[in-house]
Structures are given as C-alpha cells and as structure tokens.
Design goal:
The protein is mainly α. The chain is built from 20 helices and two strands. A two-stranded antiparallel ribbon has the order 1-2. Helix 5 (86-111) runs parallel beside helix 8, helix 8 runs parallel beside helix 10 and helix 10 (173-185) packs antiparallel against helix 16. The chain is globular, with a radius of gyration of 22 Å.
C-alpha cells in the first residue's frame, strides 16, 4: 500500500498542446541554426557593406562594389568600422545588431503586457529568419528595432522620436515602407500627433537622401536592375518566386518583367489601400484602442507586402514579428489553438524545405499567418470573446481563438 501510495504521489510529466508546439518550433529552429552556423558564410552580406563603405570613404562610389544595392547612407554608417580589420568589424556589427534587436523585442513585449518577453526575443532570434540575417550581417535586426521601438514610442506619445526611428526604413525602403505608412495612418485623426510623426520621419529621410544626393539616382537604378533580375535567385521569399518554380509550361515568370509579379503587386497594393482606409476611418477599428489599432495596422501592412515583395529574403520576414505576436497572444497563450499553432510550425519549418527542393516555401507560411491573423481580427472587430484556461473571460488576443 505504501509503494502504491508513493507511486501515486510521483508527479507525471505533462505538456500542454501549446508547449509541444513551441518545443517543436524551437527544435526545428535550433536544427536550422546548426546548419546556418556551419554552412552560411559569416558576414557574407556585411562584407559587401564593409567594402562599399571603405570605397566610399576613399572617395569612390559604393556601387562599384558588386552586390551593393543599399542606400548610400548605409555605407556612411558602416564607414567607422572600416578602420578595423574585417573580422573585428563583423563581430562588433553582429553583437551590436543582436543586442539592439533583443532590447527592442523585450521592450515591445513589455509594452504589450508580456510577462516573459525575453523568451519572445530568444524565439525570434534563434529562428531561421532571425539567425540567418544576423549571421550574414544583414540589417534586418536594425529595422526590427526601428519598427518595434517606433511602435513603443508612438504608444508612449513620443511621436517625433517615433518618426525619427522609423525613418531608418531607408536602409531597406523596398521592404520597410508599409511600416512607416501604417504607423502614420493609425494616428489619424490626431493631426498634432501625425504632424510630429511626419516631421521626425522627414528629418531622418532628409539625412539619408540629402547626405549623398548625387548617388541617389545610381541607387534607384541599382534597385530597378536587381528587381528586374530577381528571377535568378531561388532563395527569395516572396510568392512570385514560388510561382516561378512551377512548370515552365505554365508561363509564370519572376521579376518586374513578369505579368504575374505585376498582378500580385497590384492586388497587394489594392489590399493595402483598403486596409489604410479602414484603419484610418472605420469606427470599429477605432474601438480597438490605440495599441491594438496601431499594431494590427502595421502588422497586416507588413504581411500583405512581404507576401508578394519581388525582392525580399527569408530574413526580411523577421519584420512580421508584430503580426505573429498578435496571432499567438500575450505570453503565447493562444499557440495551442490550431491556427496559431499551424502558423508557428510553418514559419519554423518552411525554410528547411529549401535545403532539398531549392524552392523557398516561406511565402506559404506567411500566407497562413495572414489568413489566421485576418480571421482573428474579424473576431476582435466583432467584439468576440474567447475562452482562456481557467474560465471564459473577455480578452484581446483575437487570433488565439482561431481554430
């Protein structure tokens, strides 16, 4: 009897569905992290920035460096690091961008009421979209910090500073522009706040565009050229590259010369226009409150664009973190539900397929995330209530209810 009683007292190991989803996603992410560390050349993209900055510092054009298509201002920002050996500069850049992203994610999570935002930061940066960009020396961690930091500043009423920070979009304007637009749209009809935000945005934009104005036309030309020739890169993450991988007899191409790409872009722009109008003037959107309205507008705007962007890579999808946070709910309470669970698992596993089929399936994960988010937003706009563990309560984690 004693042994049986003792056995009954041994606690059983039990994982909730949400915990299993997060463990599976973490396992997939760590597996890809191991691959990335071994097979991706550390600092391969930062090397291009480093060479361009050094050339510009010596009086040359950064666009004489093959592969450099960023705004001249990026080379200006990197130039102080060119006084150091490359590996030292690369390490400093890696540590700085990582610390910046961690601080921004933690601050954003706390603003939204997360009890353990450090776990959100860890999950984001060990994922393929987070780690691959950090290893290669990309600037997406800086863009994420600008996006999340600007969002927090808006919510705290620091509109001018928010505009200054979000103005860093010029590091990748072809990817980041919806964030700047929808952050402003969400401020309407607060004209004073919108004016201060736009002033900050204009000041940063003037610094980027005016600092090397003579090189701006060359930069624009390089963007057009790389967009037109995007069909040669199978690692691009947008929907156009996935469609181009279908049988050639279907006649689906890629790049700005493809009618399929243009059709997708026009559909996306139409959706973004509708979203902008709704988030600005719809009474139901205003009932969401300042915080939810802002994060939903920016998150959906970035999602609709990155799904079809003709020149975006998997690491650019790190900028979808605000939308993912809305889908999984505060402290990931909704990740056990079917919709959020599917979104998390696809985002963690989709990049792995590229190792075998050499087709980037990330756009499928982004499309799933968008569908789940839109369904969740509809429920929230309709004033739906969802049931949480321990009882039915009214809450504002919409997509966590999607099944």
């Amino acid at each position: 009897m004693r042994s049986a009683s003792a056995a009954d007292q041994i606690p059983s190991l039990h994982f909730s569905r949400g915990a299993l989803v997060l463990l599976a996603a973490a396992g997939l992410s760590l597996g890809m992290a191991g691959y990335a560390i071994r097979h991706i050349g550390p600092g391969v993209d930062f090397l291009v920035f480093y060479r361009a900055a050094r050339t510009m510092g010596q009086g040359g054009s950064p666009y004489s460096i093959p592969g450099y298509v960023s705004i001249p201002g990026l080379a200006v920002l990197v130039e102080p690091l060119t006084r150091l050996p490359f590996r030292t500069a690369e390490l400093i850049f890696f540590l700085f961008t990582t610390a910046l992203a961690v601080a921004a994610i933690v601050g954003f999570g706390r603003q939204l009421g997360w009890k353990r935002p450090q776990l959100l930061a860890a999950g984001a940066l060990i994922s393929w979209v987070g780690l691959s960009g950090l290893i290669q020396g990309q600037v997406d961690a800086v863009l994420l910090a600008a996006l999340l930091g600007g969002t927090v500043l808006v919510l705290r009423g620091r509109f001018f500073l928010a505009g200054l920070l979000i103005g860093l979009l010029w590091l990748k304007p072809d990817v980041m522009w919806p964030a700047a637009l929808f952050a402003g749209v969400a401020l309407w009809p607060n004209r004073s706040a919108l004016v201060r935000y736009l002033l900050g945005l204009a000041l940063t934009s003037a610094a980027f565009l005016g600092g090397s104005a003579s090189l701006v036309p060359v930069w624009v030309q390089s963007l057009v050229q790389i967009g037109a020739g995007a069909g040669g890169q199978s690692n691009l993450a947008g929907l156009p590259v996935l469609l181009s991988a279908l049988p050639r007899s279907w006649g689906l191409g890629l790049g700005f010369g493809s009618p399929v790409t243009w059709a997708l872009l026009l559909l996306s722009l139409a959706g973004l226009g509708w979203l902008a109008v709704q988030s600005a003037v719809s009474p139901r959107w205003r009932q969401l409150g300042t915080e939810r309205r802002l994060v939903w507008a920016v998150g959906l705007g970035m999602g609709l664009w990155l799904l079809v962007a003709p020149y975006a890579h998997s690491y650019d999808d790190l900028l979808l973190l605000p939308l993912l946070v809305l889908v999984i709910g505060r402290d990931a309470v909704g990740v056990g539900r079917s919709g959020p669970a599917l979104s998390v698992l696809l985002l963690a596993s989709a990049p792995i397929a590229w190792l075998w089929v050499e087709v980037n399936l990330t756009s499928l994960a982004v499309a799933t995330l968008l569908v789940v988010a839109v369904l969740g937003l509809r429920r929230e706009l309709g004033g739906a209530q969802i049931e949480q563990a321990g009882g039915a309560v009214a809450c504002t984690h919409p997509a966590a209810s999607v099944t």
